Amino acid sequence: MAKFMLVKFSLMAEITDADALREAALKKFDADDSTSDDYPDAADWHASEEGQEERRQIATQGRDALNQFVDPTKASRLLDGVPGVKAVILGSSVGELESTTQNEARDVWANREGITWWPEVRDAELARQHREGITQWPGSEPTD
Q: Do residues 38 and 48 touch, judged by C-beta distance below 8 A?
């Protein structure tokens, strides 16, 4: 019987040049052969209201621009060559982290993922207290 494991990778992307990202995403979008049930021809889809709306989103939203480059198939290749393992692609998503610094973005990510101990990891004093047995991490066993 097969056993399934969820392998989850988180990657934070800092957009350092939104204009360059959007320009590259628009070029990629325009070159793609996107279609839909209503528009089986790529040129018709790109000219459709649906295609034009998606293009507007890419031109104005960093999340949508970055999503043009997120490829779950490439990520699944990390498991290529692992004996006895077959990657099953479940999907991908790009979500904005409301923040202005990397530390704030990491805090938002940790909160979103339900990682309750993250703030303590970043606090050197709490880490020292934990090492010395003065305090404990949430969910850890008491120290002697």
A: yes
- Cα→Cα distances 70→93, 98, 135, Å: 8, 20, 41
CB 79 within 8 A of CB 87: yes
DSSP 138: T
pLDDT digits (tens, 9 = 90+) for 72-125: 778 788 888 888 888 877 777 777 888 778 888 888 888 888 887 776 677 777
Helix (H, G, I), strand (E, B) or coil at 1: coil
Residue type, 64: D
Place of tokens 């990510």: 109
Are 97 and 108 spatial neighbours (Cβ–Cβ below 8 Å)?
A: yes
75 close to 9: Cβ distance less than 8 angstroms: yes
Q: Give the CA diameter of the chain.
A: 70
Report the distance separating Cα 102 and Cα 93, nearest Å. Answer: 20
Cα(66)–Cα(51) distance, rounded to whole angstroms?
A: 17
Return the residue matching tokens 């008491």. Answer: 142
Backbone angles phi, psi at 95, to 5 degrees: -130, 145
